[in-house]
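FORM 7B - TANDEM STRUCTURE REPORT

SECTION 1: FIRST PROTEIN
SEQUENCE AND TOKENS:
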Amino acid sequence: MMMMCIWTGALVTAALSGSAMANSQDSLKVTVTLSEGEVRLREAVDIEVAVTDAAGLSDNAGWIVLYSDLDGQLSDLDSGEAGVAMVDGRGRLRTHFDTPGERVLVALAVDGVAASGVGSTSLTVTPLAPPTALVSSPLEDEVFEVGQPIPLSAEITRAGEGDVFAIWSSVWDGPLVPGNGDVLGVPLTVTGDRVEFSVDDLTVGRHLLVLRLWDEDGNISTTLREVEVR
């Protein structure tokens, strides 16, 4: 068992490094294809593996294990298994990645008579775009009277499924607090696709209002509105 682990590790290491050793002991031909050559962070990708023997036959049964040079051994999203059964010379693993970057994916196939083969391909994982806001209120250069409620309303577009956080602030008066008891300077967790509340305590003068959004990955966007209170 120890020798098998060392040999398997050597095959995978050779494939990741591009060494010719990866093919020196192979008796199975392994082809790796992807449903997408580029995916976003945490977006599912299907990894298809096709295996044929030295005679070109694809009726092999066995086991396929997949690795990434950045992530190590990969697990299937559906089953949670760290590998997939090879049936009629084919196997499929669905997975996703939590860090961006280009990576090399390696498939190691072993059939029922201990013949093996290694194949590889590359995949690019791109970061998520930051959340964005379409501000409907206030309008640019809108004028308000002292003590008049100023509605702050924005439609939020998010790239991923995680939490998005928001905070409105005035360059002069600091963070703006909605009337629902939120603590000064503590961001709101965006629920749904809108951020809406009003403030009525801005000081007299021109204000640059800033809506700052960010997600769990640290992607940030800002939207500006200038208003006047008189």
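SECTION 2: SECOND PROTEIN
SEQUENCE AND TOKENS:
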Amino acid sequence: MFLVLGSSLDPHVSSVCDILIAKGLDVQLLDYENPSRFAISFSNVHEDIQLLIGDKLCFPKLVWFRSKLRLPNYVSDNNSRSEFSAASEWLGTIHGLKAIYADLIVPTPIAISLNQHKLYQARVASKSGFNVPPSLMSNEREACLKFSSENDDKLIVKSIGPGVIPHRDEGHLHEVLMTMEITREDLLNHPDSDFVRTPSFLQRNIGKKAEYRVQVVGKDVFPFIINSQDYRVTQTDWRYGNFFLNFQPTSLPENIIVALLLFMEDAGLQYGSVDLIEDESGEFWFLECNPDGQWKWLDPIVDNAISEAFADLFLSIYKKREAVSHDVKMVG
């Protein structure tokens, strides 16, 4: 059985699950937005944890932890304590199951956790053959000023953490922190206490000829070129134009494809959303990889080939595990 920890309202989940069900795989979704009825129990008699979804006892061989949890949407705008409590308990439930089934999740929870950190990714990407912009994480102004001087005062600042802050204005539940240009004057104008209180992640601002979003699924690579440089508002962070920019399927040089697949292998990721840029001289630079990034809006552009690739990847891993389980039973 293939267990999905996610939401039926998440189009990524529904699309992939529909394909897997059509291919004959037994799929069970533990849904927190359209809440599944479940029971998770443990006793000394069984010496193991039992999961019941509806009236079905589940023994998963593979688990998809859709880590882009949509729990903020589960809480309505009236901000009641009961709704926050419900969201918190669902979050605990999902992460509890992630711990219980850690060995069955692809990618592993450890790989997902490691790849939340930009400097970790930078080191892996560099070893995989990518150019990576010089980077600094610091809460010391003098270190930031020195780094600025070393990089011709051409810097951008990114969030170190998830980059999401609570935001209740106009009904929005959260706000995403975007990548921004930062000048030497900005660094000088902030008091030292601001730096000490809040660490910053700085990178050299690489001039862009082109920008790419690349969805990697197993050995399948889906590159899209983004016309982000056509508009001032999206030149630093294309996400400002997510609803009006063009994402055109394209090709990448063979050495970049090789570096991408090597990065994914070394990072322990079976899939991920990678951001690349091409500078004015034609050199490619690795920016970052979201281990469970959004990709569904790109899927129709390639006739739902990304959903199919995810389904094929999960089905391939599932069959391999099923074969191993069968061989172990035969030996026993």
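SECTION 3: OBSERVATIONS ON SECOND PROTEIN
The chain has three domains: 2-105+306-331, 108-131+206-294, 134-205.
The longest helix spans residues 305-331.

SECTION 4: SIGNATURE
Preparer initials: ____
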